[in-house]
Design goal:
Helix content: 40-55%
Radius of gyration: 27 Å
Largest sheet: 2 strands, antiparallel
Bound molecules: heme C
Number of strands: 2
Shape: elongated
Distance between the termini: 47 Å
Oligomer: single chain
Strand content: under 5%
Number of helices: 15
Structural class: mainly alpha
Strand order of the largest sheet: 1-2
Order of helices and strands: HHEEHHHHHHHHHHHHH
Length: 326
């Protein structure tokens, strides 16, 4: 859509300056965020066993090397780990150093785990994420109220792979896929679901049969759009509501004041606004929710029509004036 140029103002001095800043900043971020070589080497002490589907150890009694299968749940994918938010971590930053010995001591199972807030709470660096607000929203959600302490942040934020998606440069469809996979990890997987309850897992496809073109919707909107209460002060709503309160009305999205502007598109809208200086760039570029952008086109169309009518009147009038003068 090129009704408006993307970058409209060109100030000669600011361009090289901005470039310089960008290079400096990206350099700084890179240096800070890359895992150190010593960390990677250290983590291999764990990943030589936990990094794939089998592991080996020396049996001191027989003196021979034994090869065993690693349980799927205890396998950590190196690529995902070093791509995650916590990629600069040593395994033992979160786990006891005693895991350095094998077989692991039995009491290590009882070790309590850090919560997000233990590290991120009250820290200025992460203020924009609003951890405290997210936590209190989460505590009001169905998951927390029904399962209290059993259901914690790690259930959705895999400690070994969670990475920011919504604030990334990713396309909306990729963000939707990433976020929905988090929910489907339980809601489409009976084993994970039943770790928390003995209930039969409701069939997600059947439960959403009322939604036309369900597959298309699930690719274009996140589960939380319909299931979480939006909150102006945080970017990702965490208060999952009971099913009776879920969004079912089509106009909630398919209208000019679509709830998507306050949720899914929120970040892109904010970014878009500050970058390009005009409002619904997101919808123009990738959103295309029918209804939500209709007004825009209608607006343009009516402007063109108005222009034509005005021009028509003008030509007509001037022709008449010219004729009269003759
Ligand atoms: C020789 C292979 C081997 C090495 C090396 C190894 N582990 Fe393990 N680890 C296992 C196996 C097998 C299990 C599952 C059985 C058990 O709990 O002992 C396991 C289980 C675990 C568990 C889950 C315990 C539970 O049940 O809650 C954690 C956490 C863990 N390892 C962390 C580590 C860390 C951190 C390191 C590196 C400092 C490490 N492991 C090194 C083989 C290994
Ligand atoms: C940011 C903190 C963090 C880091 C870094 C981390 N872990 Fe974990 N890990 C956790 C938490 C929290 C759990 C428990 C998850 C749960 O209970 O759902 C866990 C669980 C595990 C388990 C048991 C999985 C299971 O489901 O039984 C293994 C094995 C493990 N970690 C190994 C590692 C290894 C190896 C590394 C380094 C490559 C590592 N962890 C790095 C926080 C971390
Ligand atoms: C043991 C302490 C610790 C725990 C527990 C922990 N974090 Fe972190 N987290 C950090 C540190 C330190 C960084 C910065 C890492 C870096 O810059 O390489 C970080 C980075 C992040 C980032 C990226 C910030 C950015 O600006 O890119 C997010 C998001 C995040 N953590 C969310 C979480 C969530 C959600 C949880 C719980 C599920 C959690 N963290 C648990 C210490 C922790
Ligand atoms: C039911 C699943 C679920 C639970 C439980 C959950 N989260 Fe999240 N959280 C998400 C999803 C989905 C996202 C969006 C990830 C993305 O696209 O970047 C997210 C994003 C975040 C972010 C990044 C927000 C931003 O502004 O970029 C933080 C921080 C966070 N969660 C913290 C927490 C904390 C702390 C807890 C526990 C109190 C928690 N979450 C529990 C699903 C969950
Ligand atoms: C367009 C809005 C919308 C989207 C998108 C959506 N849902 Fe729903 N969902 C609903 C509504 C409305 C209900 C209530 C249906 C009923 O009660 O018959 C519901 C019901 C549910 C239930 C309760 C099922 C039961 O009867 O116990 C679960 C669980 C659920 N959805 C999970 C999800 C997950 C996971 C996703 C993402 C893959 C998702 N939903 C996407 C609107 C939506
Ligand atoms: C760790 C597993 C797990 C994850 C991840 C998870 N859920 Fe759930 N969810 C459950 C369980 C278990 C229940 C059943 C709660 C109960 O009734 O006891 C549930 C219930 C629900 C309900 C129905 C509440 C009702 O009224 O019956 C909705 C809606 C829902 N989840 C949406 C989501 C969404 C959206 C996400 C992703 C942001 C998500 N869930 C992620 C396990 C999970
Ligand atoms: C949570 C927001 C949301 C809700 C609620 C919602 N939709 Fe959608 N709908 C979307 C998005 C986003 C798309 C994807 C648009 C695209 O990519 O073409 C879409 C696409 C569609 C399409 C497909 C158009 C095409 O290109 O083929 C139809 C038809 C549709 N919706 C009808 C409905 C109806 C009927 C309802 C109510 C029962 C509904 N929607 C509820 C967000 C929503």
């Amino acid at each position: 859509m090129s009704f408006f140029p993307r970058i409209s103002i060109k100030v000669p001095v600011s361009v090289p300056l901005a470039l310089f800043m960008a290079v400096m900043l990206s350099g700084a971020i890179d240096a800070q965020n890359k895992p150190k070589k010593e960390t990677i080497d250290f983590n291999e002490n764990c990943l030589k066993c936990h990094g794939q589907s089998k592991y080996k150890y020396l049996n001191p009694e027989s003196g021979s090397e034994v090869t065993k299968r690693m349980y799927a749940e205890t396998i950590i994918n190196r690529t995902e780990f070093y791509d995650s938010n916590h990629k600069t971590f040593k395994c033992t930053d979160c786990h006891s150093e005693e895991y350095g010995t094998f077989p692991h001591a039995g009491n290590l199972r009882m070790e309590s785990k850090y919560a997000c807030i233990d590290c991120h709470g009250g820290d200025e660096t992460y203020a924009k994420f609003q951890f405290e607000k997210i936590e209190s929203e989460f505590h009001e959600s169905v998951h927390s109220t029904k399962h209290s302490e059993d259901f914690n942040c790690w259930m959705c934020h895999n400690p070994h792979s969670y990475k920011i998606s919504v604030r990334s440069e990713d396309k909306i469809k990729d963000i939707v896929a990433y976020d929905n996979a988090i929910c489907l990890n339980c809601h489409a997987d009976i084993t994970n679901y039943q770790m928390l309850t003995d209930k039969v897992n409701p069939n997600i496809v059947k439960k959403h049969e009322w939604l036309p073109n369900q597959a298309l919707h699930f690719k274009n909107v996140r589960c939380i759009e319909c299931h979480a209460r939006t909150n102006d002060s945080i970017l990702v709503a965490h208060n999952i509501q009971p099913k009776a309160k879920a969004v079912r009305r089509c106009v909630e999205c398919h209208s000019t004041n679509s709830i998507l502007m306050a949720s899914l598109y929120k970040y892109k809208v904010q970014e878009g606004r500050s970058k390009a200086g005009f409002y619904n760039g997101v919808i123009m570029n990738e959103g295309y929710v029918i209804g939500a952008n209709r007004n825009y086109y209608l607006g343009i169309l009516s402007l063109i029509m108005f222009g034509c009518v005005a021009a028509g009147i003008l030509i007509h009038a001037s022709l008449r004036i010219l004729k009269r003068k003759k």
